[in-house]
Amino acid sequence: MKLQVLQDNFGNQTGVYVPIEDWTLIKNNYPDIETLEQELPQWEKDLIDSRLNAITKNPESLKPIETLFEELKRKI
Protein backbone atom coordinates (compact mmCIF):
# COMPACT_ATOMS: atom_id res chain seq x y z
CA MET A 1 0.00 0.00 0.00
CA LYS A 2 1.51 3.30 -1.08
CA LEU A 3 -0.01 5.97 1.13
CA GLN A 4 0.95 9.60 0.70
CA VAL A 5 0.79 11.95 3.67
CA LEU A 6 -0.45 15.40 2.67
CA GLN A 7 1.00 18.48 4.38
CA ASP A 8 0.14 22.15 4.45
CA ASN A 9 2.64 25.00 3.85
CA PHE A 10 3.83 24.70 7.46
CA GLY A 11 4.59 20.98 7.26
CA ASN A 12 1.56 19.99 9.34
CA GLN A 13 -0.02 16.72 8.27
CA THR A 14 -3.48 17.43 6.88
CA GLY A 15 -4.54 14.20 5.23
CA VAL A 16 -3.64 10.93 3.60
CA TYR A 17 -3.98 9.89 -0.02
CA VAL A 18 -4.98 6.25 -0.45
CA PRO A 19 -4.80 4.79 -3.97
CA ILE A 20 -8.23 3.61 -5.17
CA GLU A 21 -7.12 -0.02 -5.46
CA ASP A 22 -6.10 -0.01 -1.81
CA TRP A 23 -9.27 1.81 -0.78
CA THR A 24 -11.37 -0.81 -2.58
CA LEU A 25 -9.50 -3.57 -0.76
CA ILE A 26 -10.03 -1.83 2.59
CA LYS A 27 -13.76 -1.41 1.89
CA ASN A 28 -14.06 -5.09 0.95
CA ASN A 29 -12.43 -6.13 4.24
CA TYR A 30 -14.27 -3.53 6.36
CA PRO A 31 -17.66 -2.87 4.71
CA ASP A 32 -18.80 -0.49 7.46
CA ILE A 33 -15.73 1.76 7.22
CA GLU A 34 -17.62 4.63 5.61
CA THR A 35 -20.11 4.75 8.48
CA LEU A 36 -17.57 4.70 11.32
CA GLU A 37 -17.78 8.45 11.85
CA GLN A 38 -21.46 8.35 12.71
CA GLU A 39 -22.21 9.50 16.23
CA LEU A 40 -22.89 6.89 18.89
CA PRO A 41 -26.50 6.58 20.02
CA GLN A 42 -27.23 8.04 23.46
CA TRP A 43 -27.82 4.62 25.03
CA GLU A 44 -24.26 3.58 24.07
CA LYS A 45 -22.83 6.81 25.50
CA ASP A 46 -24.77 6.24 28.72
CA LEU A 47 -23.50 2.66 28.95
CA ILE A 48 -19.90 3.76 28.44
CA ASP A 49 -20.29 6.51 31.04
CA SER A 50 -21.73 4.09 33.60
CA ARG A 51 -18.89 1.63 33.04
CA LEU A 52 -16.27 4.37 33.32
CA ASN A 53 -17.89 5.57 36.57
CA ALA A 54 -17.83 2.02 37.94
CA ILE A 55 -14.13 1.73 37.08
CA THR A 56 -13.39 5.09 38.70
CA LYS A 57 -15.14 3.99 41.90
CA ASN A 58 -13.51 0.55 41.94
CA PRO A 59 -10.28 0.57 39.88
CA GLU A 60 -9.01 -2.64 41.49
CA SER A 61 -11.83 -4.50 39.71
CA LEU A 62 -9.91 -4.18 36.44
CA LYS A 63 -7.89 -7.21 35.43
CA PRO A 64 -5.43 -7.70 32.57
CA ILE A 65 -6.89 -9.31 29.46
CA GLU A 66 -4.38 -12.14 29.84
CA THR A 67 -6.22 -13.17 33.01
CA LEU A 68 -9.42 -13.59 31.02
CA PHE A 69 -7.64 -15.62 28.34
CA GLU A 70 -6.14 -17.92 30.96
CA GLU A 71 -9.53 -18.41 32.59
CA LEU A 72 -11.15 -19.21 29.24
CA LYS A 73 -8.44 -21.77 28.42
CA ARG A 74 -9.08 -23.54 31.74
CA LYS A 75 -12.77 -23.87 30.92
CA ILE A 76 -12.17 -25.50 27.54
What does this structure look like?
The chain has 76 residues and is mainly α. It has one domain. The chain contains three helices and two strands. A two-stranded antiparallel ribbon has the order 1-2. The mean pLDDT is 90.
Strand order of the largest sheet: 1-2
> Strand content of the residues, in percent?
5-15%
Q: Residue-averaged pLDDT, rounded?
A: 90
What is the total domain count? 1
The helicity comes to: 40-55%
**How would you sum up the major sheet?**
2 strands, antiparallel
Provide the succession of SSEs.
EEHHH
Total helical elements: 3
The 3D shape can be described as extended
The overall strand count is 2
Q: Gyration radius, to the nearest Å? A: 20 Å
Distance between the termini: 39 Å
Structural class category: mainly alpha
Question: Could you name the ranges where pLDDT drops below 50 across 5 or more consecutive residues?
Answer: none
